[in-house]
UniProtKB/TrEMBL annotation:
Residues annotated as domain HTH arsR-type: 18-107
Protein name: HTH arsR-type domain-containing protein
Gene Ontology MF terms in the entry: DNA-binding transcription factor activity
InterPro entries: ArsR-like_HTH, HTH_ArsR_DNA-bd_dom, WH-like_DNA-bd_sf, WH_DNA-bd_sf
SUPFAM superfamilies per UniProt: Winged helix' DNA-binding domain
Region (Disordered): 176-200
Length: 200
C-alpha cells in the first residue's frame, strides 16, 4: 500500500485502533510517552532515546499520521528546520480498548510496558531521585481475591489514575501562574493475575 494510502487508513481508523497501532512498536510507545511530558523535535528525541534520527523521525511521522501528536512549532537550527511536536493522546488504553485487542498484541504491549517501567525506575535509581524524597511509595503485595473484590480493586485503581491526571492539570495551572517548577513524578500501577510456579 502506498505511503499516502497507509496514512489515510490510519487517519480513518477508530481511535482505539489508532492508539493500539501507536503503542504496538516499543520505540513509538516510548516517543509518545516522552511527548506527553513536553514538546520536542525528532532530533531531541533521537538524542534522548539514543536512536538514529532517521528511525525516530519515521516513528514520529507515524504518530502524527495516527493523530496521536501534533505539530506545535518550527525553528531554524544549523541551516535546517526542526519540527516540534506534542502529544494529544496519552499512552494509555481504556478497558474497552484493551478488551478489543488480540491476545498476542496484549502480550507484546504488556512486555513493553514492564520493560519501559523497569528502565525508568533504574534511571531514577541511578540518578538518586528514587530515594531523594522522604515520601515516595512503592509496594508489591500478593492477595487472594474473588471476582467481586477483583472488580472493586480494579475500579479503585482507575480512580487513582484519574486523580493523578486531575492533579497534574491543577499543578500545571498553578505553575503557569506562579512560575514554580514541577516535579517529574512517576506513577506505575500493575494489577494482574499471578502466574503459578511449577505449573501447579
Amino acid at each position: 500500500m502506498p505511503d499516502n494510502a497507509v496514512a489515510r487508513a490510519r487517519l480513518t481508523a477508530p481511535a482505539a485502533s489508532r492508539l493500539a497501532q501507536a503503542l504496538s512498536h516499543p520505540l513509538r510507545a516510548q516517543l509518545l510517552a516522552l511527548l506527553n511530558e513536553r514538546p520536542a523535535s525528532p532530533n531531541e528525541l533521537a538524542r534522548q532515546v539514543d536512536e538514529r534520527l532517521e528511525n525516530v523521525a519515521y516513528h514520529v511521522r507515524v504518530l502524527r499520521d495516527l493523530g496521536c501528536i501534533e505539530l506545535v512549532d518550527t525553528a531554524q537550527r544549523r541551516g535546517a528546520i526542526e519540527h516540534y511536536y506534542r502529544a494529544i493522546e496519552r499512552s494509555y488504553l481504556s478497558d474497552d480498548e484493551w478488551a478489543g485487542m488480540p491476545a498476542e498484541v496484549r502480550q507484546s504491549l504488556a512486555g513493553q510496558w514492564f520493560e519501559a517501567t523497569a528502565v525508568d525506575i533504574m534511571t531514577a535509581l541511578s540518578a538518586g531521585t528514587f530515594t531523594t524524597r522522604d515520601d515516595p511509595h512503592w509496594s508489591f503485595t500478593r492477595v487472594q481475591l474473588d471476582e467481586e473484590a477483583w472488580t472493586a480493586l480494579h475500579d479503585k485503581l482507575q480512580e487513582v489514575l484519574d486523580l493523578a491526571f486531575e492533579l497534574e492539570a491543577q499543578s500545571v495551572s498553578r505553575s503557569v501562574e506562579s512560575g514554580r517548577p514541577l516535579t517529574p513524578s512517576r506513577l506505575a500501577m500493575a494489577h494482574y493475575e499471578g502466574g503459578r510456579r511449577g505449573g501447579s
